[in-house]
């Protein structure tokens, strides 16, 4: 088989699984879980030859092109492409997704919609693989939206719970806001350059067919899509709520299939962004990285802490991309995918064992759940950026790129503060979670007593992912495969050494603070919270962004819709009805006029004649004596007149 | 069956069916239904033949039938199909067949209902096939009258108000169309109603004449679409009409409006179009955004679907008006015609779905439902497909047509198109909100006994759903019909001066 066939198998195996599963899943043995897990492993295995091909030759490029929609001169092509970045994404996504599928067999056991769950999960993976492989803007948008659909279905999977139903809806609509921006960006590119294909768009931009403010605006429109999908400020609000979905779904969303899409897309269409656009992106990313970290410090829901850490890390990835760290940003995407999937699955293991998500009800789980503890520890170390764990390499590179950028443009000093400050926060919140959950005395004896390590179907994926969370940063393999598509400015020398020192210092300090606070007890978290009550309240309530949206957007908007409906009924339809009534009124008046005046006149003539006739009839008695009498009278009158 | 008269066979098979139904004795309701089904099955079967034999490379008229009818006034019996009419003509046969299956539940006045129904189908098919303006007008009116009775007799509690409103409103439009038709008739020497001749002579109509006649035609057709502010008859008519009639109304009858514009106004009065294109695009935008806003505020499921129709029909008009220095946009015109087709299938599904729920719960107040996804999973699944099609999800048919319209309109009207694109956020909002209120959340115990969707209902929905999915993945089977004629129309209208 040639490589193209393998690529198509990798892409379509999950779709085939989803299709069979949605129609026949309930009738298959074990409700079809083996099928859905199986197709994912098929997909992973089929992606290996692709990886080998790009490994052997980093400049490797495969294109699978086909016509799809053709209208004379206008056309939308169908095209898939494989290069270094795609090769990695294809393998990593199918790999992580395969283990999340496997883990779900244990986690979702006994769910009434077990078979449906696997169908959705397969479809989610298919959408993401399609997005990774797409070679034009139209197709990437199609898969982009399908990813959105899958997330909607899975976040709201337990739709009987209003919170889950709300979260799914919120995710879809917030993403749609970004998608519209993305779509407008695509329209602008198409209008200016007459093509949807990445390659031709990049060529056109390189040739200067599109430049200046228009290109900046276009780039920012495209970026808006990534703001939605990769949960950057201010469209980040859907991601923390998205943990209403089953925990393996959170793992999938946070690692491989959803939030990764935005970062991947920015990397994929990199030449579209101008330096001005990157400055905006860098600030959005920096704000996301820092402020999400501060929120994570105050949350008690274990999944929520991890969710805010994802936001923060996504900010890092974008920050890297925006400050010239092309490879660094995408590298962090991959290492993060491993350790974040791991952390969510480990958190799921804890939730599975304790039936609570509240950190305040945990504690002392280390001995009870050793596999979960040690794998989660590996994930946390990677997240905090401790060498030699994978996250260290990628995050260090991002901070290096940011410092280089700030040295070259000192007016953007704030970005460096966000980056380094965020690293400190990461160490702090990651180990706050570890210490609260796994060390110390159990805070809920009852729950602790019933806790137990998860079955192998769940722990094996943890171990496998942990291996990668530890080692994915070694060997410089990523730099070998992924090359920036444009010439990047080189930061000043020394930036990287400085970055290394600062990031190690920040991470170490963060972990140390967590240790002092939650293990040694030198610092009381409660006292700090009391001392800075307003700040704490602000953070605990996530800067009130949701409340602001509710008060500033949702409620006024709903009022507007009601106003429009009232206008429609009262004014527009009111006018129509008024026309009806007016016509009836006029016709009534006309009827009166017709009846009384026009017909009245006619009747008057008739009546007058009849009345006249009636009078005359009195004379026409037909009795001869009367006539003679009148005649006699007349003669008498004439005689009288003559005589007088 | 002589195939050179295939269009006549298709149009008059329902008429023959109506005649047979009329002759049947009382009390044979089941027989009436089956004969009616047969009468709609014949055009559907022939539609497959027409689809297979349609020459996709030719922009011209096909399956033409051309006979003298009233020679004294040069009125002809002139039928034919091209890429503009074929998709709607073929879709009419399908929707009419499926809506007839959905009419099985009509229990009162069965004979009258099916007789009128069949006449309605004949009228609609005739509108899409007629190429003589006089004949077109006659079919136009033929489709109007049965609709009046079908709403007014078999409708809901406010049926008389809705029926008379529909009738008078449309009749008002018809009068304007009639005047425009006569103006065009007398503007040609020798006088003619032949549309091909009226189009060929479009260079000789003066600009003032064009501007005036265009307005008259526009109002007549816009009422049918309906375009803001002529739309308020639609929610009333939909809410009161029985389910199958709503399906016909939204699926087919509304399309007669934009079809009339593309068949008559655009090619006969191109200079007027160039003057009016921008204002028309603004009205299209109002339809899209305002329709969505009003839809969001509705509490009645059926009214919501009706307003969503208004919103989606805005895309049709927007695509048709996308004109720039290169002339009408290829993506815009093809997208508009495809959107007519896709809206026909998607809205038909939506009204059928509302009907399924109404038959069981006997009301349509959205807030009152909840959690039906547990109680009626198959129904919820089909509804989810329809809802996502309506909100323009890629992979389902409406996305492609709406995307084509936006792509086509963008170079001509940037700001308007961006606002229209923002409208699709609102669309997503009200569909997902409705989905949530009806299907998600805890099950309302009042509805714990609602039966799942039945086989007959699935028969009406599944073919449409399959079509929506198939055309969403691969739209060329319909676009292939359209594109040659669309190109010809674009050439006829020509570029902006």
Question: How would you describe what is shown here?
Answer:
The complex is a heterodimer of chains A (644) and B (497). Chain A has 644 residues and is mostly helical. Chain A is built from 25 helices and two strands. Chain A has helices at 3-24, 33-56, 84-107, 114-133, 137-155, 162-193, 198-206, 212-229, 238-241, 247-257, 259-268, 275-298, 302-322, 326-354, 370-384, 390-408, 413-438, 445-450, 456-471, 477-481, 495-520, 525-531, 533-540, 545-619, 624-643, and strands spanning 62-71, 74-82. Chain A has a two-stranded antiparallel sheet with strand order 1-2. In chain A, strand 1 (62-71) and strand 2 form a beta hairpin. The longest helix of chain A has 75 residues, at 545-619. Chain A is elongated and about 155 Å long. The mean pLDDT of chain A is 88. By secondary structure, chain B is mainly alpha-helical. Chain B has a domain at 273-497. Chain B is 72% helix and 4% strand. Chain B contains 20 helices and four strands. In chain B, the strands form two sheets. A two-stranded antiparallel ribbon of chain B has the order 1-2. A two-stranded antiparallel sheet of chain B has the order 3-4. In chain B, a hairpin with a 4-residue loop joins strand 1 (62-70) and strand 2 (75-81). At the A-B interface, strand 1, helix 5, helix 6 and helix 24 of A face helix 6, helix 12, helix 14, helix 17 and helix 18 of B.
